[in-house]
Amino acid sequence: MQKLMNVFIVVMTMFLTMSLANAVPDLEMNTPAILAIKNSMQARHNQLAPHYASGAIGLTKDGLIAVRDTTAVPLKDRQGINALVAAENADRNALYKEIAAGNGHPEWRGDIQGTFAGRWIDKAQAGWYYQNDSGWVKK
Question: What pLDDT was estimated at residue 5?
Answer without folding.
Answer: 45
